[in-house]
Specification:
This protein is of the alpha+beta class and 399 residues long. It has two domains: 177 residues, Thermophilic metalloprotease (M29) (Thermophilic metalloprotease-like), CATH 3.40.1830.10; 216 residues, no CATH class. The chain is 33% helix and 25% strand. The chain contains twelve helices and 18 strands. The strands form four sheets. Strands 12-11-8-6-5-16-17-18 form an eight-stranded antiparallel sheet, with helices on one face. Helix 2 links the parallel strand 1 and strand 2. Helix 5 packs parallel to helix 6 and helix 7 crosses helix 8.
């Protein structure tokens, strides 16, 4: 496990992430929530102290244990699944920041839960997420999250706990003399690439690998996001495309754990922006039920590329936060089915109404599920005049 020195460095990196993610500066008296799982208690304590020292109001929330979640999803009736605790909406309307400390004790405890029950709970909490998205668009709210190594994560990743911990330390630069300085360096380099991508008159992207042949339209009024402080670690650069024109095939060679289910060997076939055929070597039934969650669950909400020169992650980690930022030999490309990100809208995010989202092809859903491809690949940008330019190859952006 992480030492207190490493946890203190982690806390400083998370504070950098939170302050970078929020457009407005934090002030004394602001409210910051710390949501943490039991194994993350020590990091939560360190963060709590640092927030107090900065004159903020920390709100600590221990999340449900694996056994609690199992009871909830296996035993709840419809009204219980749709229940939102009194005060949650009021808190969301006041929050200035959130820190999410994930340290799962189990990844498969919900494998017997009905996908419909999981979907119902996600749909019930969706209005709270919309409140926070509105506050974030105004610059009043920011968030970041992280993962701490646990025995469950290490076991499902096929690593020893010590080796898993070393991956976390390396990925987050906790072994550096100044971890925050390393993140500031990555932030600057990513900003240069995002500005370059933003200047290209792209009509669509064509992704080609051994299992993927996918065309992704960019859409109007888009901007690239990523390395914004919202996730620690985060090396991906992403955009929410025009979901209506996605076509072709996408293959995910990395497994995925979601709601207690392991899904592996996913193949998604798109026509007119929607998945028309979905298959998986493992977990296919769960996959198909999740894609039927709502009208937007079978459309793309995110298109992402990770440059291997940024990321030190070179192992499957059984956690999306790390796996979607995989560097390795060829970097990674991933798409997410479900909700889009309003921070990839190039206009004023406060004016991105549901009607405007629909008009611009920003997908809307209670689902957001990432599927990762780490194969050798080429990504070609097709410009508005029909010309073509390779922008990503051998795991690196090509400028």
């Amino acid at each position: 496990m992480l030492t207190d020195k490493q946890l203190d460095a982690y806390a400083e990196v998370l504070w950098w992430g939170l302050t970078t993610a929020r457009r407005k500066r934090f002030r004394r008296g602001d409210i910051v929530q710390i949501r943490f799982q039991a194994a993350a208690l020590r990091l939560a304590e360190i963060l709590y102290r640092k927030l107090i020292e900065r004159g903020l109001h920390p709100v600590a929330r221990l999340t449900s244990t694996a056994e609690m979640e199992r009871s909830f999803f296996l035993l709840s009736g419809p009204q219980q699944l749709a229940f939102v605790a009194p005060g949650e909406r009021h808190l969301c309307r006041r929050l200035n920041g959130s820190l999410f400390l994930n340290a799962p004790e189990s990844l498969t405890h919900l494998r017997e839960a009905a996908p419909a029950a999981i979907a119902a709970a996600a749909i019930a909490s969706h209005p709270l997420r919309k409140v926070l998205e509105g506050r974030e668009a105004r610059g009043d709210y920011g968030w970041t999250l992280c993962i701490l190594p646990t025995a469950a994560l290490a076991r499902h990743a096929g690593l020893s706990l010590a080796r898993y911990t070393r991956q976390v330390v390396a990925a987050c630069f906790l072994d550096a003399a100044s971890p925050v300085s390393e993140w500031q360096r990555i932030h600057r380099r990513a900003g240069q690439i995002k500005r370059w991508l933003g200047r290209l008159p792209v009509a669509c992207f064509h992704v080609e690998s051994a299992t993927t042949d996918l065309v992704v339209p960019l859409g109007a009024k888009r901007r690239w996001a990523g390395v914004s402080g919202r996730n620690i670690p985060s090396f991906e650069l992403f955009v929410s495309p025009d979901c209506r024109g996605v076509r072709g095939v996408f293959g995910a060679d990395q497994p995925s754990f979601r709601s207690g289910n392991r899904v592996r060997g996913v193949r998604l076939e798109f026509e007119d922006g929607r998945v028309v055929r979905a298959a998986a070597e493992e977990g296919e039934g769960f996959l198909k039920k999740q894609l039927a969650m709502d009208a937007g669950a079978s459309s793309v909400g995110e298109f992402s590329l990770t440059d291997r020169r940024f990321s030190r992650i070179d192992r499957f980690m059984a956690n999306t936060l790390f796996d979607e930022n995989y560097g390795g030999r060829f970097g990674n490309c991933h798409i997410a089915l479900g909700s889009s990100y309003t921070n990839t809208y190039a206009g004023d995010p406060r004016k991105l109404s549901p009607a405007l989202k629909a008009a611009l092809g920003f997908n809307q859903s209670a689902l957001h599920w990432d599927f990762v491809n780490t194969e050798k690949k080429r990504v070609t940008a097709v410009m508005s005049d029909g010309s073509r330019k390779v922008i990503y190859e051998e795991g690196e952006f090509v400028r």
